[in-house]
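>> received
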Amino acid sequence: MDRRQRKTRKAIFDACVSLIEEKDFQKITVNEIVERADINRGTFYLHFEDKYEMMKSFENEMIEKIEEVLVNNIPNEEQFNEQFLKSRYDTLVQLLNCYVENNDLLQLLLKSGHNASFQAKLREKLHHVFTTKVFPNLKLDYEVPSDLFVILFTSLSLSLAEYANQSNKPIDIEQLAKMFFNILIHGPAKTLGLLQVDDVENKNNYF
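>> returned
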């Protein structure tokens, strides 16, 4: 994509971000998008077949950004040890920063009614990354299916990103990452103080 194409795509994206604050995505027309972007219809259709294909393209763009963070931080064989979780902290900080830095894109996907589609694509991508590059090197507790882990990881990370984006106060990404790890490692019940360590270890008391 050359500079001119990137500029046009950015204008279309900015127009969509603006319009989604005013009306539902289903009510937004291509005419409104091109008028707000200050381009003609022909230029729009050089980039996208219609507004739905446009949103799929935006979905893929966000997923590629997330995948880049994860793939660039895949641990080497020596890092798959007791320090594995600690070594993933920096990765999580980068991932949350990715969400926050691309807030407009993420919010467009969520507000346009493409949340389910986006999360499904993201789970599929994360499942591939985890099952091919991470899980084979770990000793997994197969009482918890890998699919379930991916769903929980995806939902929790997106929820924290949405929390950061909607907060009225400045968010410390590193502190948010620590919160994520606390929930991920200890679980909601222990994090909230509803369970003690002995209770967690003696899970037969509950299940």
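>> Residues 51-71 form the longest helix (21 residues).
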